[in-house]
Design brief:
Layout: H1 2-21, E1 24-33, E2 39-48, E3 54-68, E4 73-90, E5 94-111, E6 117-133, E7 139-148, E8 154-164
Antiparallel strand pairs: 1-2, 1-8, 2-3, 3-4, 4-5, 5-6, 6-7, 7-8
Length: 165
């Protein structure tokens, strides 16, 4: 009897694990900030609550350095985001979603000829939306636009590819 209980629990955990795993996505792509005016790369992870329209998104955007050779100034930026996501409309091929959450901007400036660089950390929030097109269950192109205030105060555009697990 005890073995039957253990076997039932093991199958239940296996089933639950497979259901949760199907809702996890990770990916990367290209990003562009309208104020910083430099492209960059982003990495992203999503967890969709099973059988619900809600999810959690964590992402990091790295922007290529912005340099002014005449002034000898180099600027670097990276943004970290933690968002809640809600899928408004979706079918077997296309999801339309909105998202909003917290943003942390890490910025630094270096002036040539000086040993020190200045760094700043600013907190803000972002709100936006996007689409995901499901080519296959594990291959999902996505595009997203959001407005981020706080240190960034700009529109950010992300275009990339997600992989389902």
């Amino acid at each position: 009897m005890k073995q039957l209980r253990y076997l039932t629990c093991a199958f239940a955990l296996l089933f639950l694990g497979s259901q949760l795993a199907a809702q996890v996505r990770a990916g990367a792509g290209f990003t562009y900030g309208t104020k910083f005016e430099k492209p960059g790369l982003f990495a992203r992870g999503e967890f969709q609550i099973p059988n619900k329209d809600f999810g959690i998104v964590a992402s990091a955007n790295y922007y290529f350095p912005k340099e002014d050779k005449n002034l000898g100034v180099s600027q670097n930026r990276m943004a970290l985001n933690l968002d809640g996501m809600y899928t408004f409309a979706g079918n077997d091929f296309l999801d339309i979603y909105g998202l909003g959450g917290l943003n942390v901007l890490l910025a630094s400036t270096k002036i040539s000829g000086f040993d020190e660089k200045t760094s700043s950390t600013k907190f803000g929030f972002g709100v936006g939306g996007g689409i995901r097109y499901k080519l296959e269950s594990n291959l999902i192109p996505m595009a997203e636009m959001r407005y981020v205030n706080g240190g960034q105060d700009e529109f950010v555009i992300n275009i990339g590819l997600l992989f389902g697990f």
